[in-house]
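Lecture notes, unit on protein representations.

Consider one protein chain, 168 amino acids long.
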Amino acid sequence: MAAEDIIKYLNLVVDGRGYAGKIKEWSPPALTLATQDFRAGGMDTAVDLDMGMEKLTCSGVLTSYDDNVLALWGLKKGAGVQLTARGSMESLDGTTKPIVHNMTGKMISLERGTWGPGNEPALTFNLSLVFYREVVNGREIHLIDALNMIRVVDGVDQLAEHRKNIGI
């Protein structure tokens, strides 16, 4: 169907504060496997070995020069910033579905944009994540907990046997 799952509405909650009406852009983390080529005798081509995941990062742009967000940059070790991004998608047939991203991470950069008379304020933030959870229409699609070695994809914990094998 044409016009399926169009993001119509968005809200972001940063450290318990809502930014509906102030969130201009949201970029969820890219999920990328770290791979290593493996080719042994008798193999005509290399295959990818799953060596874990690349670092998870996310970013957003606020249309507000918000001092509460500015104050979250570089928090001390162990003090993660909590984020929840919520989107509402709609298809041409009128059906809607919610998307929820829950994250915990460290704010690693702030960009304040270019200042000028009459310019809309822009505050771009980037986080490095230790936790990410994605729920689409009530179905948990991804749950990644880097510190506890958990990677759940569509209800299957990809690392459960590895944790068991190493005693954690």
